[in-house]
Design goal:
It is a single chain. By secondary structure, the chain is of the alpha+beta class. Helix 1 packs across helix 3. It has helices spanning 13-30, 60-69, 99-116, 124-130, 136-153, 165-178, 190-201, 221-232, 250-263, 274-287, 316-319, 483-487, and strands at residues 4-5, 34-35, 39-43, 48-52, 74-75, 95-96, 157-160, 207-211, 235-237, 266-269, 294-296, 305-306, 336-337, 341-347, 351-356, 368-371, 381-388, 394-401, 404-405, 409-410, 415-416, 426-432, 439-447, 453-457, 462-463, 471-480. The protein has a six-stranded mixed sheet, with helices on both faces. Strands 13, 16, 23, 24 and 26 form a five-stranded antiparallel sheet that branches. Strands 18, 19, 20, 22 and 25 form a five-stranded antiparallel sheet that branches. It is globular, with a radius of gyration of 25 Å.
Length: 488
């Protein structure tokens, strides 16, 4: 069976990563080996696209470890220019597939992470991105500039400015057509972006590293720098302040910007840029933590807003939605345990929503949290179910609506309603069987009538302060009893 592959895709840095995700997923799904594609370097001035080996920019060994873990076969050599045929000259070394289709599949796999949350950190998509590590030459240069920017100058902010000439056309021809009635700001000026950041951070915002294609700016960078300082007292720096960008290719420059953006304490960009999304997403994959301090400026309110999606959504309303980051309602305890379970809820104005603590068999990651504990949108949990493997403790639970409790229901069964705008006003759950002698079932909730998180355990009712608040968010945790609790 011939391997599959494509000889690079004529896309930017991040979209080439997305196409690679799609190719690897296709190889896994079809149980076929694949050839690592070339990377593409686009020269804006000449309009040329040069194919170069993947290994020139990224450490292949790190990626091979992922492929081995997921039993995905890769063929060598990794450079298309050296493996057009093998054996019979008429026999291709790989079956040419459409790189654009790989990009579309990769985009779907990337999007799935947003709906799965932290439980996806162990899956194939996140492991690919986690192990995309630049070669040592690139790392050495970026480390040197990082030290100068973040330690020497003391900069905390990295700002993506999609104000280049090509973005003007993309905004007018593509983004504006997504929703003609949207007030989303697709093409703010550099001054607008600096102004909005200054409004949010005030005196803390005094300097920033700017990410952009400097060769395609609508006005010289020194003009932007002068306006930023004169109007807002903000010093701006570009990569050309530290290296000669004329000596480097576009792919190298994009990677350098990317590595610097990940390192910054605060990052501001547009959610409509896959590059900007991947700054958050790749940091999420590599730190294995929810990302904070990342903002978007393509909002409809003339201000920047913080992302809560770990970079997994391009639509601004989803990018800033706390629902998808699954913020815990109460902290973990050292006696808490993670068993393979999933919490399924129906949320008004959203629909079906799932929170898992594992996606890879035998490995747990993520919390069973559903809903939004800090949002102001009128959406509530109308019902839920808890699903688990046969080896996990059995849970049973019931729901409260308008003062009336439903019947107890065993795990994997749904309680409540769907699509009837009937929010739950409370719930209760407990462990059934011998496991209850060693474990506690801890659960908490946030209701509409108070900012207080209500915590209950082992069959206790979890209801709001007034008894009539609507259920906005819920969290479930199993916890080992202490030795004294077991004896008593």
């Amino acid at each position: 069976m011939h391997p599959i592959g494509y000889d690079g895709v004529d896309l930017g840095l991040t979209n080439q990563k997305i196409a690679l995700i799609g190719l690897i997923h296709k190889a896994l799904r079809e149980n076929r080996p694949f050839v690592l594609p070339s990377l593409v370097i686009y020269d804006v001035k000449l309009g040329t696209r040069e194919r170069v080996p993947f290994a020139d920019f990224y450490q292949v060994g790190r990626l091979l470890s992922v492929l081995q873990a997921f039993s995905i076969e890769i063929v060598q050599p990794f450079d298309f220019s050296f493996c057009k045929t093998y054996g019979d000259d008429a026999a291709p070394v790989y079956e040419e597939i459409d790189g654009w289709q790989c990009f579309l599949e990769g985009a779907d796999r990337f999007g799935e992470v947003g709906f799965s949350g932290p439980s996806a950190l162990n899956n194939l998509t996140c492991q690919i991105i986690r192990n995309l590590v630049p070669v040592s030459d690139m790392s050495d240069i970026s480390k040197d500039i990082k030290h100068k920017i973040f330690n020497g100058i003391g900069i905390y902010f990295a700002v993506q400015m999609r104000i280049e000439k090509d973005w003007e056309g993309y905004s007018a021809n593509v983004l504006e057509s997504l929703d003609p009635f949207s007030k989303e700001e697709h093409l703010p000026t550099a001054t607008d972006i600096i102004n909005w950041i200054k409004k949010e951070f005030g005196s803390r915002f005094t300097a920033a590293y700017v990410l952009c294609d400097e060769k395609a700016l609508p006005v010289p960078k020194d003009e932007i720098r002068k306006l930023a300082f004169e109007k807002h007292g903000v010093h701006l720096y570009w990569k050309s302040d530290f290296i000669d960008i004329e000596k480097e290719n576009s792919l190298f420059l994009s990677m350098l910007d990317f590595e610097l953006a990940i390192e910054a304490r605060y990052f501001i960009g547009t959610s409509r840029s896959t590059f900007s999304c991947f700054v958050s997403f790749e940091k999420f994959c590599k730190t294995r933590k929810n990302i904070d301090g990342h903002y978007i400026y393509n909002t409809s309110s003339n201000k920047i807003l913080e992302r809560h999606d770990n970079g997994t959504f391009m639509a601004p309303d989803k990018a800033i939605d706390r629902l998808y980051q699954r913020h815990p309602l109460f902290p973990r305890d050292e006696k808490d345990i993670d068993l393979p379970m999933s919490l399924h809820v129906h949320i008004s104005n959203i629909g079906e929503y799932e929170s898992r603590n594992n996606e890879i068999r035998g490995v747990t990651c993520g919390l069973l949290v559903a809903g939004d504990s800090g949002g102001n949108q009128p959406r509530y949990i109308e019902g839920f179910s808890i699903k688990y493997e046969n080896t996990a403790p059995e849970l049973y639970y019931k729901a409260l609506h308008n003062g009336t409790w439903g019947e107890w229901s065993l795990g994997n069964n749904y309680v409540g309603t769907r699509g009837k705008s009937r929010a739950l006003t409370g719930f209760s759950m407990d462990i059934q069987g011998p496991a209850r002698m060693s474990l506690d079932c801890i659960y908490g909730a946030k209701f509409s009538d108070s900012d207080k998180v209500i915590i209950a355990r082992n069959g206790e009712p979890c209801i709001s302060v007034t008894g009539s608040g609507k259920l906005q968010a819920m969290q479930i945790m199993l916890r080992h009893k202490s030795a004294t609790e077991i004896i008593s």
